[in-house]
Amino acid sequence: MKRFLTLTITCVLSSGCVNKVDSQSPEPKHNNEQHKLTKQTNIEPVLLVADGLNSNGSLVNNYKRGLNYAINYFGNYGPYYVYLLGPSNKKNIEEIYLKRAKSRVNKEASTSSEQQIAEFLNRPNVIKEIDAVLAGKAEGGLTWSRPPRRVYEDVTTNSTERENNPIENTWGALHEYHHVFQIAHCDSYTERSSDRNLNSWMSEGMATYSSAKFMENLNLVDFKSYMLDLRKTGGNISASGINTFMLNNRDWRLNDETYWETKNAAHIYYMLGAWATAYLIHVEGVPEITVLKNWYFDVPRIGKSAAFQKHMGLSLDEFYIRFNSFIRQSDKKVMKIFESK
């Protein structure tokens, strides 16, 4: 699993599509379009699988194990398309990408459907992604298109690894769907530091926490051991843990958005963010469903800072101060927050 999520983080940095809005579509009209995005849909998720995969049904079944759990918890947002791809015959992959292009067509646009399809298929990042699929390389990730035709897509270019690791497959489905829910309740067109968008520690850390906790609920992992591993070894996220990062970066800040690229430490949003989430739930006493779900509903209406203070009971600035003091304690002390009271 460590290799799987490490590859996911690498895709964020190299392809720019994970947790990145489709940048080649027109700017949305924020107020009206954002309101539409927060509504649930009756459209069921669509899974498209390349030839040669899922021969016994396990690839899809184990992905759906996570996806169905997440939808039951967060609600159904979409349309959501899942592409479980891998080396196959070129014709099959091209057919899948044609379906993908058609799913994005805005029938009310000034350009024809044919033009929109051709434009999408000729994008350099899409061409690169198709090449990666045929070569069995790991690219892609979660992406979404701009309104008025909003679709969410979870793209795995080499699903062989998912097929061979049922745990990883389910875990990834849980993590990515939490992002779908998050994106539906923030303005993903603004900077992460904007009050209308989510900080990276919120989006990645809360999804890391939720997916691990849900995996325990499914009797697939030990949540407490996982949280300790994030501190000591990096768990399934990184080759080194939180303790090593803090030792080498004493002036780190949870809301520093430069770790993605300039500081080459994107993994810290996942690991420290998961512990920040745990702190809110187990130290500040905020109900789990509030932290993982309910507070997001107010972000589009009143902004991130006000929504956080309303639901968590403290300001973001105060939270950063308290969490900074908490997380620098020993493993033994911080793990006590998970002891039954």
Keywords:
17 helices; single chain; alpha/beta; 341 residues; 2 domains; 6% strand; globular
Report on this structure:
- The protein is of the alpha/beta class and 341 residues long.
- The chain has two domains: 2-183, no CATH class; 200-338, no CATH class.
- The protein has 17 helices and five strands.
- Helix 4 crosses helix 5 and helix 9 packs across helix 12.
- The longest helix is centred in the middle third of the chain and has 18 residues, at 166-183.
- The two termini are 32 Å apart.
Largest sheet: 5 strands, mixed
Total helix count? 17
Helix content percent band = 40-55%
| Low-confidence runs | 10-20, 23-29
Radius of gyration: 20 Å
Q: Give the class from helix and strand content and strand pairing.
A: alpha/beta
Order of strands, main sheet, comes to: 1-4-5-3-2
| SSE series | HEHEHEHHHEEHHHHHHHHHHH
Give the distance, in angstroms, between the N- and C-terminal Cα atoms. 32 Å
Strand content: 5-15%
- Shape descriptor: globular
Could you tell me the number of beta strands?
5
Query: How many structural domains does the protein architecture include?
Result: 2
Rounded average pLDDT: 92
Layout of helices and strands, plus pairs?
Blueprint lengths: L1 H13 L5 E2 L8 H8 L8 E4 L8 H17 L5 E5 L5 H14 L9 H9 L2 H12 L4 E5 L7 E5 L3 H5 L1 H18 L16 H18 L5 H10 L9 H7 L18 H16 L5 H5 L6 H4 L1 H9 L3 H12 L3 H5 L6
Parallel strand pairs: 1-4, 2-3, 3-5
Antiparallel strand pairs: 4-5
Helix pairs in contact: 3-8, 4-5, 8-9, 9-12
